[in-house]
Amino acid sequence: MATARRSKGESRFIRYLILGAWALFCLLPVIWFLSIGLRPRVEIITPRPIYWPTFSLDAWHMIWEDWPMGKYLRNSVLAIFGSVLIDLVLAIPAAFALSRYQFRGRDDIAFYILSTRMMAPAIVAIPIFFLFRNAGLLDTIWALMFVYAAINLSVVTWIIRSYMLDIPKELEDAARTDGASDLRILWEIIIPAVLPGIITASVIAMIFAINEFLFTLLIASTPDAYTMSVALANFTGGSDGVIYNAIALVAFLAFVPVFLVVVAIQKHLSRGLTMGAVKG
Amino acid sequence: MARIELEGIQKRWGDVWGVRDVNIDIADEEFVVFLGPSGCGKTTTMRMIAGLEDPSEGEVRMDGEVMNEIDARDRDVAMVFQGYALYPNMSIYENIRFPLRMRGVAKAEQDRLVREAAGMTELSEYLDRKPGALSGGQRQRAALARAIVRQPQAFLMDEPLSNLDAKLRQAMRVQIKHIQRELRITTVYVTHDQIEAMTLADRIVIMQSGAIQQIGTPDEIYSDPANTFVAGFIGAPPMNLIEGTLAEGTFTAPGVTVPGLGGAHGGPVTLGVRPEDCRVGGETSHASGTVYGVEPTGDMTYLTLKAGDKLLEIKAPRTYRAGLDSPETVAFDPAHIYLFDSATGARLR
Fold it and tell me: Is A189 in Cβ contact with B87 (below 8 Å)?
């Protein structure tokens, strides 16, 4: 039979071609954003597509000079890192207790923690608004920090717990007979062993936080507490109309750091997203 | 360096019994092996000595002091685990040093002790490595080094060799025994491997279903088994156990007739005879049947004889050969025939 036999190089070329096309398709929105962000405003709202737009840093200058983008960025970073820190301080001991001790209602408590994630944000939005108003925390980064931390706490706890469940009990028994206290075991044995899980959980929490919009809009009423995601909304109204190139550029800037982190830890991330699939 | 006493130890989880009424007095410097099939309660018993498990009833005493209420980390026993349980994020040096650090040993002293323990276990050149970069045998030695480094009151070893291949296991066995003799530290060792038990132990404790079946030196366990479980568990191949009837001093079972057993007992009994106490051919014949299999091993030949519906294992001379299904007779050594009560399994003396 005269079957056409492809050479190794040929089949590899086809494989890369298909994967490359798929990657391009997935990256298209990002490329499109970048291309809109880096062209002058007049070239955005033309009836005919412009395939080779003029390169322009108009939007770039605008977002930094006309808008306090540096402040928004700082707010985002502080609120996000602060919230992740709060999450870790609370979630690591909780995950330790939920994974390593036997006590009545342990699994119910674990599920209750996760169930807070199932609540529609709109239900708690109004109470949270009043809560922070009474506490005098409206329009502060602190409020954002606490809200992000509260939203993410359940997921962070569950991811770290699932990693802790994988640590053999023998390791803990060994440390105990070696003379270590519970706190020592957590600090010296468990935390180093679940470090990939802690990093994964932190990144997932950061992604949620950076995209958070509803609560931020509710809490932040002045640039003092605006984050990148809310700042985006500022380009849609006012006397200037919708400033598409600025929106595109800010969206791109918000996307890049997350993208880089995800690429760097993607191996751990897939493990975190399938947590509890086998054990849990 | 401690005497360990277990008195009336029971362990149950709800309706499930782990350990029933265990009483042992382990002498200072003694090497005691808990032997039994998996699920027999041997590991649970050891974990109660370590303080990782609380007995439901009974007392654990070390040097006369009741340990029940004392936490594992204050008991000063060192444990070696089946899965090694090395701390994966620490170097071998850090692993060995960990118990010293936890107990607040002086810094300079720590270094000296770690190097000494590493020397004894031939790990000196691997101290900088992480456990993941070591072979199974090296990891096992590192676990051992971590146990010996602080000269504890007692060693507890839970199937420490079961993850190693046969050759390495034998080498490690010798090393463990040597170190134990040298340090003179009371050792409790759990295994399901009878060869390990026989070679290592001063005394063997055989357990089944949470209860002790027999305590004795390897010799006693081998030549004077208390019941059919012990008889069938020890020896490779294990003792032949033939169920039959004893009447007027003669034991009969399909294909087996053994006279001259005395008139003290009668009724349904189980006759036990070890493969090495059987002789093929000869003038007397206690069992006759057909050859089921012949396995030459070099220094001897295993003959499997089908007598009635029972397969008997016999250690035959190394030159022995026979065709399949050919008739054969076997004589038992009258000095090494054991009788057991068929109903209870207990030895009839």
Answer: yes
**Residue of B67, B81, B114, B188 best to disrupt the A interface, most CBs of A under 10 A:** B81
Query: Is the residue at A173 inside a domain?
Result: yes
- When divided into structural domains, chain A yields a total of 2
**Distance between CA atoms of residues B93 and B134, nearest Å:** 13
Among the listed residues B173, B157, B212, B163, the one whose alpha carbon sits nearest the alpha carbon of residue B19: B212
- Residues in contact with A253: Cβ distance below 8 Å, sequence separation at least 6, in sequence order: A228
Residue A151, chain B, CB below 8 Å: the answer is: no
- Contact B89/A192, CB-based, under 8 Å? yes
3-state secondary structure at position B272: strand
Element (H, E) at B325: none
Q: Is A188 on the interface with B (CB under 8 A)?
A: yes
* Residues A117 and A160 placed together within one structural domain of the fold: yes
For domain B4-232, give the fold.
Rossmann fold (3.40.50)
User: Coil, helix or strand for B278?
Assistant: strand
The verdict on B67 touching A (C-beta cutoff 8 Å) is no
CA B210/CA B11 separation, integer angstroms? 9
pLDDT block averages, 10 residues each, chain B of length 349:
90 90 95 94 94 94 93 92 91 95 93 94 93 91 93 93 87 92 94 94 95 96 95 92 92 91 84 94 88 93 93 94 92 93 91
Residue written as token pair 């399938």: A274
Which CATH number does B238-348 carry? Answer: 2.40.50.140
Q: What is the ipTM of this complex?
A: 0.84
User: Residue B58: what are its φ and ψ, rounded to 5°?
Assistant: 100, 175
| A175 contact B CB<8A | yes
Task: For residue A226, give the DSSP letter.
Answer: -
The CA distance from B90 to B131, in Å, is 8
